[in-house]
Amino acid sequence: MSQSHIDVRYVANLARLELSEAEVAEFQPQLEAILGYVETLSKLEFSSLDNAVHSVPHFGRMRDDVPHTSLSVEAVLLNAPDQAQGQIRVPKVVADA
């Protein structure tokens, strides 16, 4: 990834951007600096880190996965507020066009 020159015009064309000469001159070193940071990050070793490590602790985000084999369609329909012909009926949410 150690490329000495990045074609800013080519990247801008891919993004469908029109750049002036001043913008090309401004973005050239910025893009090369970004790619330098990416190259630095790619050299770091992360294999010793636990995959579950987060910068912010997560508590109670997901429930335990418990199979509900005893739950049947009939039981769901009995608890539905409105049902007809074996289906749960819900209010219409599409506005008139």
Explain this structure.
The protein has 3 helices and 2 strands. It has a domain at 8-42: Histone, subunit A. It has helices at residues 8-14, 21-42, 73-79; strands spanning 83-84, 87-88. The radius of gyration is 28 Å and the shape is elongated. Helices cover 37% and strands 4% of the residues. A two-stranded antiparallel ribbon has the order 1-2. It is mainly alpha-helical and 97 residues long. The two termini are 53 Å apart.
Order of helices and strands: HHHEE
* Physical arrangement of strands within the biggest beta sheet: 1-2
The CATH topology of the domain at 8-42 is: Histone, subunit A
Count of beta strands: 2
Structural class: mainly alpha
Pick out the low-confidence regions.
Answer: none
Classify the helix fraction into a percent range.
25-40%
Specify the CATH class of the domain at 8-42. Mainly Alpha
Number of DSSP helical runs: 3
- Biggest sheet descriptor: 2 strands, antiparallel
- In percent, how much strand structure appears in the residues? under 5%
Summed over residues and divided by their number, the pLDDT gives a mean of: 80
> End-to-end distance, in Å?
53 Å
Shape: elongated
Radius of gyration: 28 Å
What is the CATH architecture annotation of the domain at 8-42?
Orthogonal Bundle
